[in-house]
Amino acid sequence: ASYGPNPICKGCLSCSKDNGCIRCQHKLFFFLRREGMRQYGECLHSCPSGYYGLRTPDMNRCSRCRIENCDSCFSRDFCTKCKTGFYSHRGRCFRGCPPGFAALEELMECVEGCEVGQWSEWGTCSRNNKTCGFKWGLETRTRQIVKKPAKDTIPCPTIAESRRCKMAVRHCPGGKWRRPAKTKDKKKKKKNLMERAQKQHSIFLATDKTSQ
Q: Which one GO biological process term can you cite for this protein (predicted)?
């Protein structure tokens, strides 16, 4: 090296006092560092964050990562570490994982998630394991897990859901349908009011005759 004692020339085959390394030893990577308006060359064993090592017959160089939101990369189109807040997936960086993949928070990576099939048709409307005898019941539909997740800690989407339904057959064959308690109480209350009104009407008629 032309300026061997100078630390800036460490690992250089040729070096400039003002511009630092111009050529590097065979195994090292040439990195052009910029500080304000000044730039100078360095010879490094590994490239800094945001760069990757590109080996060529002429000279190994540190090339900048061009992948969006990437902090360090293995090659031009494969990121090994994403910036804070981004998930790594197949060499790229994402705010959220693509469909079919789940976020592994501890590693900030997207891994294969739980895949489920299509929903089945809604089942028979029933209540208390009966398909008659009530006005309202519940019907259920399900779907199967097609592929289990890569990690046991990743939950699967719900595979069963129910909804309220109106029973097609309200009266059970050979049985007596009973109204719900609320309806029965309401009918009884209405009957008591009618009886009370009739009683008051009778008293009024009797009083009216006496007065005549």
A: Wnt signaling pathway
Closest CA to 157 of 102, 196, 116, 103: 116
Query: What predicted TM-score, i.e. pTM, was given to this entire model?
Result: 0.45
**Token pair 């050529």 is at which residue?**
23
Q: What would the two tokens of residue 34 be? A: 């910029």
**What is the spatial distance between Cα 168 and Cα 163, in angstroms, rounded to a whole number?**
15
Q: Which domains does the chain have, with CATH numbers?
A: 12-64 (2.10.220.10), 70-112 (2.10.220.10), 116-210 (no CATH)
For the chain, the first-to-last Cα distance in angstroms comes to 139
CA angle 154–157–163, rounded 5-degree value: 155
- Give the type of residue at 191: K
- At 83-99, the pLDDT tens digits run 899 999 988 999 988 88
